[in-house]
């Protein structure tokens, strides 16, 4: 690494670094207190001392430091996957905002210190990056027409997370070694998370987790959503199969084969039909497109052992029953754990024994090279025979019947065993959700209803009873919320990344690109039927590895130092500017979380103070106003509560919970609340508590209406979105 000369332009590049340091200090002070700032100052001091020492060090020492820094940075995607996995999948605003701040800091440091930080950005990388950056900007701009700035800010932070991730790793530039190293760490991290998830179910006496009633027996820990864990395991399976078949290090091949039975058992216990289908698609695509020489050995070692582990998980019905922690279920879980461990051991032993076969198939005199034409003809013949047999056995009619079931059946048939849902192809209510989003798109085809406003459209649509936040489709929800412009931006990222990962004309790197493309394809299809975008644990890997692959490893362009410094300054300043939003969201959300806990504990004095602090940090969100209003209502200050609720409705006018609470506080002082009640009923016409409140207030002020209003306020549930 060559030390850059000190010039005014060079100093200009460091300005965003100083701004980022100040922003980080503010964020830590507002969220972690003085101790966090002391820690931050210590980190800055250490970083400054390291930079000063590097400038005095010899060439060899600087090269070692540069290689170490790059190696550490390549581990960042894996660390982010683990962090988000154990923080509810990254669904909530505070974890996303924290991820934004960390990634922005890393990117600004790279822009300020790297010799040519933007040289890796070619056309292949700029197309997906433009899609992500444009999507984030369009989401933030949507607050103008949606009149829900808090929701738009949360959506902006999430889109910014993917944009920063892609930009950071694209700036590194992907050599074969770097891509392989990053893929290994991500696959290892995913396998470890899958192992912990499986442990929580097979040994609940060792790893105790809180049961989730909404999961209905399906494995959701640690991501908290079973379908997100399903696609997570599907991607992990594709990446680990690649490592087992084609990694240059024999030990990695052996260990990756051993990870597949664990991943398979965890995937099965999610009972995620989409996750299982995505795994099949991803593995099939890898087999067809990548075709590494070691695939035969990997399949011999991992396929039967993974199948045995998944069958044992399928037969362990008590683990997905209503009492997964009963003595009988724990005993069954321990039995399953023993089977999975035996499968892991068998896969490891078999894969190790088959390393000799790898050397034979990968050698200069490989029988694959000698019989390539015959093998292709055999494969083609087998495919034709399989299609003919499938047609003869009635596959077309079966597919038609399954499609009709998907279109007509809203939910899987009720069954005592959760595993029976795997035999159903019902849409599980998704068509209804997609219809709501598409109706919103038809009403606002260009710009949509605004980022993160599907929830509002859903409740207004008279669709169904239940708490729904997302449309269960990245593409259709984007159409409804951000219009055709938003969908084009999403497709620029998804299709642009997949095109860059396509294993065409890759030579010896075909298997590596084939693994990334196959995993990306599985994710892209699954995102069409799920809300994977809102779960960074299941999606961030694509932005990280996609950026790394699409970034140029070297560039022949040699712009002047002044041009490089000015460009890096502009880019760094832009990153610092947009990071203001996640810093504000983090400070606001931390106080909101504490306020919610205090409210639940009955400490309204503390809850009110923390909620107002949250409003002071970021006053465009509705949930803090709800806590302030409900605390005022608890104290009998209903007029003040009404004023606070109107303030909340000022930043989110279509929130049915605030509107219903306003009707209740209005009736609590003996005023006529029929207008507010009708508005709340229009915003959520099927919510039973709102229907009952509207009926009670329908005849104007009365003692009965006041009792109903007070009863409603006592049972109010806090807003968890927005």
Description:
- The protein is mostly helical and 722 residues long.
- Among the domains are: 174-363 and 502-532, no CATH class; 622-714, Serine Threonine Protein Phosphatase 5, Tetratricopeptide repeat.
- It has 30 helices and no strands.
Secondary structure layout:
Layout: H1 8-56, H2 59-74, H3 76-85, H4 93-113, H5 123-141, H6 143-146, H7 149-172, H8 176-202, H9 226-246, H10 250-270, H11 273-289, H12 295-315, H13 327-353, H14 355-362, H15 367-370, H16 372-392, H17 395-408, H18 430-443, H19 454-460, H20 474-501, H21 510-527, H22 536-550, H23 561-600, H24 604-617, H25 623-634, H26 638-651, H27 656-668, H28 674-683, H29 688-697, H30 703-714
Helix pairs in contact: 1-4, 1-23, 3-8, 3-22, 4-7, 4-23, 5-7, 5-20, 7-22, 7-23, 8-9, 8-10, 8-22, 9-10, 9-11, 9-12, 9-21, 10-12, 10-13, 11-21, 12-13, 18-20, 20-21, 20-22, 23-24, 23-25, 24-25, 25-26, 26-27, 27-28, 27-30, 28-29, 29-30
